[in-house]
Amino acid sequence: MSGVGAGVTGAREGSEILVAASIITMDPAAPRADAIAFDVSSGVITAVGSLDECAAASPGATVPRLRDTVLLPGFVEPHSHPFVSGVMTQSPAIWIAPSVGYPTWSDVTTLFTKLNAETPAHQPLLFNGVDRLLQAAPMPSAAVLDRYFPSRPVLVADNSGHLAYFNTATMAMLGWDQHAPADPVGGSYGRTTDGQLDGCAFELPAVMAVAGPLMAAVVTHPLHSAAKWYRLMASNGITSTSDMTYDSTYLKGYEALAAVADCPLRLSLYHVSTSEECGATLESPRPDMVRKQGIKLWADGSPWIGTAALSFPYLSNDVVNRAQIPLGPAGTSAMNYTPEELTAVLDAHAPEGWQMSFHCNGDAAFDVVLDVYERGLRAHTLLGTDHRWRVEHLGACRKEQFQRAAALGVEASMGPFQFLFWGDLLDGTLFAPEIGSQWQAIGDAFAAGLEVSFHNDGSVSPPDVLLNLQGTVTRTTRSGTVHGPNQAVTLDQALRAVTVNGARQLFVDDKVGSLEVGKLADFVELSTDPYTVDPRRIAEEVSVLGTWLGGRRIDLEAFESEVAAMDPSPHQGLAKPRQHACC
Prior knowledge:
- By secondary structure, the chain is an alpha/beta fold.
- Among the domains are: about 95-220, Roll (Diaminopimelate Epimerase, Chain A, domain 1); about 270-515, Metal-dependent hydrolases (TIM Barrel), CATH 3.20.20.
- Helices cover about 30% and strands about 20% of the residues.
- Helix 4 (about 140-150) links the parallel strand 7 (about 125-130) and strand 8.
- The model is unreliable at about 1-10 and about 580-583 (pLDDT under 50).
């Protein structure tokens, strides 16, 4: 279940040699090269080294020159949500996150008023990215949203991905004004003192029960929406990624995208544990492009809305109180499932060979996850094997926990975006400085022996790999402020995180992640060698010029245009994922 087929790049023949100003291979045995050769029909690398060495290995090859640019392995983001990110952020949905031009609640409500006036009456609207902390927003419950949308169904997804808000017209559209639903397993609805819905849905099962029908009503060409997100990821140099909330209803959409000649992403799927089909195998016609790798579970929620399982409290101040975040500490009461429920999933599916992955933000949650993992690894005789069970995010977690994870063979995919976008609030506003300054303790994780990967958790933050490099090497936030400099990592470590380590965590390191003979010719072309610029200016002075997949230079305009021209009718249902009843 961990293999991936050779790249298929179309009807091309012969060999090609790319010559660049420098090639950073991420192969410790030969870290730099001037040229790289590959077979264009299979997309497999045949030589790496000098031009003479590559020419000797590939006689008769064409030799395009990239002049002053730099090649690296295509970036790997091992934790993303490409399809739903496209549907929820790309037009006709409206992305209102602070990171994309809406820094304040006033900016958001100005847009609300404008769109309500300009949009045909009763046509639903779908928004994504409200951030109560960064935008100083109130809880946009039904009472708030009804002021701006008194008669049109509206859903506003929280930027955390763990909460959504809806108005009274949406309740009427769903029939919930007459018969309010019960809380689903793993999620809940906010309620007024008399038990009525208040317009808030917490955690994925509840969020999607509201969002699904709105998505289906608003997004008429979900495949095109997904293609736009693919294009955004590829424009940031990403060539391999995952869907960490995969449901089988997405499969035909992913396979349709993979069939387009200039599809820019290889995709590994992690099936949600709440699906009755989560243990089913997947036979894909393009296993080099779409493959199933594991099963995804949720331990806790989000620190931005107060649902992370933390052992320490929030500080009491205007920012925290305005966002209506309980001070806590919540401890394990914030867990989405009991240890027994989580263990049952591992017991059911570990014998099938699937890689396990846990969403986990809080330190109290990480203790539970490590306990559950240790028990499962022992019970299924996996300790000491190459299982690569994963834990995601780990914002509040500590060095001794990382050391325990390393001893168990557990992998960590961490989110620099949490520190980059929220770091100025984390340190001294949300939490005491000794906690907040250490958020995303990536330096400690590497020191503990973990080979960390990085992700942006699209659409929680834009997939900006170069910004991740800059922020983790300098420990500077988007504002340029330094917090917790002891957690800075080297550029070598940061580049490993976005190449070889990400590939390893997806079990595709035999094919991608470094530029070596026998691997696929997946490249990112950069304008400048990141080792030659001021680390504080990497995101400004280095830019992504393009990507290759299997030796084919990707044309993102052609990709999106071809998808946009497809008949959307076979894919209408992809904007309305199926719900699952239990863990």
